[in-house]
Amino acid sequence: MHAAAEPMEKQGAALKQYAIVFFASLAILGAGIAANPSFTFDEFSYIGAARNFIAGTPSMNPEHPPLAKYLMALSITLLGDRALGWRLPSAIAGAMVAVSAFGLTLRLSRSLHTAHIAWCLIVVNGFWYVMSRMAMLSIFELAFEVAAVWVFVLAAERSSARWFVCSGALFGLSIASRWCGVVGLAVCAAYALVYYRPAVKNLALMTGSAIAVYVGSWIPLLLREHRSAQYLIAANIYILQFHRHATTDPRPGEPWWTWIVTLDLQQAPMELIANPVIEILGLAAIIVLLWRRKPLLPALYIAHEMQWAVVPHWSHYYYYLEAFTFLTVALAVAMQDVVVRRVRLDVVVTACAVGAVVWPFWMAMMKHLHAAAPSRNLLGNLLINNKLSTPCPSRPLSGTIDRDRGKDKDGRPCL
Q1: Cα–Cα distance between 274 and 199 in angstroms, integer?
Q2: In sequence order, what are the residues at sequence separation of 6 or more whose Cβ sits closer than 8 angstroms to the Cβ of residue 25?
Q3: What domain count does the chain have?
Q4: 327, 166, 319, 115: CA torsion to nearest 10
Q5: 344 DSSP β-pair partners
Q6: Helices and strands in the chain: count of H runs, count of E runs
């Protein structure tokens, strides 16, 4: 009886850890998420599509699958057509990314300490916070993909058909949010063929469930817009043709290879810039894991990066989100149990990564404290309302602040 109770106790403790990570992440993301009542970057297009779905009119964003826009529409219906209603689903998806990265790391390392390191690094990696606080599609695709990879690792270890089906369903939800989820599915399928060859039948189940879920995700749109089943084929052909031929964009972009060498410090909470500590050491971690013959995370990073090298499509810095998330997890896994003179390397690196985020804000706060008319609520403005640096609608999500041209109406630097 005691032997049976022990696994239940461990399972309950694990669920408690997952709950803590999820709700702590959601609290971080939710603070001040509705402070900006205006659209930023591509929010207008996706919120517009969500409004179209609510009204039953044709979508203004047919170049992407509909699932993430359903979730935005549901939130708008429940919470109102306002900033909170637009962005809360993204915050929930961001919390899902955090807990899935935590669970994936725990599965790969068998170490609760390493899983917590991965979570801390995700929080300060520079992409997670920004992309989880905007009504964009990428965070939904990533949330389902990281969860799918987590379940895939569990399925491969147990050779469980049920878990392969669950993984495939999550990949289907990822692809139904944004087609980039196909990359994760392809990498996991290839990995299983190489390392778990008896799982060919289970891979067929995983792929089949992904396709079934993806096709099923279109049904609400077909019903809402009174479309025939033929529209499903036509809509997906349009998505394919759009991304094959949409090679120009009036907004300035950044080639995929420049993302790797974009090393700078954040100057504001909502500035999208990769944490340089994670970027530099993460690339080293990819090499370490390949040397250790643990290629899953390196393959996910490389594949997500290389997709923009082979696809004839414009590229923006925020497309680095998926690759950099897996790079962050890879860094945590590679540092497991590495001790230098009785000091854990992962603790030192995490402290440096946190410092890289905190230091610019601290310096900005000190500068404003010595200004002639300092804000009474400086810390709140900095951390929640982001008053020290506000988004410029004319600029894409870029890696650096345009210090010469990018100014808001009050003369502050902006994205």
Answers
A1: 37
A2: 94, 95, 98, 99, 119, 123
A3: 1
A4: -30
A5: 339
A6: 18, 2
d(CA 73, CA 82): 11
Is 159 contained in some domain? yes
Q: Mean pLDDT throughout 65-85?
A: 96
Q: Where are the alpha helices (DSSP H) in 124-268?
A: 128-131, 138-158, 161-177, 181-195, 200-216, 219-224, 230-245, 256-260
d(CA 220, CA 33): 28
pLDDT grade for 9, boundaries at 50, 70 and 90: low
* Residue 401, token pair as written in the block: 């602040």
Question: Residue 176 belongs to what domain range?
Answer: 12-375
Q: For residue 330, count CB atoms less than 10 angstroms from its CB and return exposed for 0-12, middle for 13-18, buried for 19 or more.
A: buried
Under 8 Å between Cβ of 232 and 222: yes
Q: Is residue 187, in this structure, part of any structural domain at all?
A: yes
Instruction: Map 100-147 to HEC letters.
Output: HHHHHHHHHHCCHHHHHHHHHHHHCCCCHHHHCCCCCCHHHHHHHHHH
Rounded to two decimals, the pTM is 0.86
pLDDT > 90 fraction of the chain, expressed in percent and rounded: 61
CB 353 within 8 A of CB 377: no
pLDDT value at 413 more than 50: no
